[in-house]
Amino acid sequence: MPSTIRSFAKINLGLHIRGLRADGFHELRTVYQTIALHDVVRVQVSRGSGIGIICADPRVPTDSTNTCFRIVERAMAVLGVSGQVSIEIEKKLPVQGGLGGASANAVATLLALERALKKQLPGSEKLRIAAEVGSDLPLFLVGGTILGIGRGEDVYPLADLPATACVVAMPEIAVSTPKAFADWDLQSSASVPPTRTGGDARSSLVAGAKLTVSSPSDRMNEFSRRVSAWLSGASGVPGSQRRGRAETPLLDLVRTGIENDFERVVFPQHPELREVKRVLEREGAFYASLSGSGSAVYGLFRARVTASKAAVRLQAGGTPAVATATLTRRQYWQRIFDC
């Protein structure tokens, strides 16, 4: 009997990029938010050995390059067990869409594997294995609203934002994240700011936590200040105070002016994505942004009915889009096993 898990997507509420670190990764600051769109992953363990992956989407690798394969390999070794692991991925999320689909699949596979084996890894061990496999994986072991720092793998739960209506547009464009980073490096190389020793980035965002990040950029510090101000409830941004039931902590956050740096390099190459963002804004989104490096573009709405109309407008123009909602941490963990 296979163990079945929902594999929820994420969006990025702002994403700031620093230059390359010594390990070859970029230093990042972002706020992740899980949403209700999802794939479905089924895992079964039987006698024998090996890892097999089945997926109807030909763009999904079924060999050892798949994140699901890699996380199973590591988890089985740590648990000290053997067996033939079969993984079936029912794909609904776009491939290379910026919604974290492959990373979410891997974490769902890990959770399903634990259920199938009736064994459980310590939380810290799961986070370690997830971070080894990919930068976006650990966020899916937290869910809800999450601060991501380092290369994105260093994650901390933030105060949950209320569930908010959301439209996700999924143009049939594959955006390569490595290429987007390379384009960012090329664009920023002509005006690299002088490095300097900055303050403790994580302690300014999560009380009591400590992290030393070498030479953070001014933009990084600004992102940290804005999120810190939002968390303290005193953003200092005109109009940021709540003025009624329609105002939410999420609206307060986006009013701080957080942006996704990838838009600077992805939109010029794919102007149709910029136009999707403009449509969402014209249709009433109080915030619209590229998610990750794209190509998914999302908009946040005050009402589900407005979001549904925006999705219909995009669909009428030939852009696949769906109305959904953000997930709180509690909703995430309630629904992930509800299959």
Defining traits:
Ribosomal Protein S5, domain 2, 339 residues, 10 strands, 10 helices, 4-stranded antiparallel sheet, 2 domains, globular, single chain, alpha+beta
The rounded distance between the terminal residues' Cα atoms is: 13 Å
Structural class by sheet pairing and helices: alpha+beta
CATH architecture of the largest domain: 2-Layer Sandwich
CATH third-tier fold name of the largest domain: Alpha-Beta Plaits
Which runs of at least 5 residues are low in confidence (pLDDT < 50)?
A: 193-217, 234-247
Number of strand segments = 10
Shape: globular
Rg, Cα atoms, Å: 20 Å
Assembly state: single chain
- CATH top level assignment of the largest domain: Alpha Beta
Measured as a percent range, the helix fraction is: 25-40%
Our count of helices gives 10
Question: What is the overall pLDDT average?
Answer: 84
Question: Care to describe what's here?
Answer:
This protein has 2 domains: 157 residues, Ribosomal Protein S5, domain 2, CATH 3.30.230.10; 165 residues, 2-Layer Sandwich (Alpha-Beta Plaits). 34% of the residues lie in helices and 24% in strands. It contains 10 helices and 10 strands. A hairpin with a 4-residue loop joins strand 5 and strand 6. The radius of gyration is 20 Å and the shape is globular. The two termini are 13 Å apart. About 12% of the residues have low confidence.
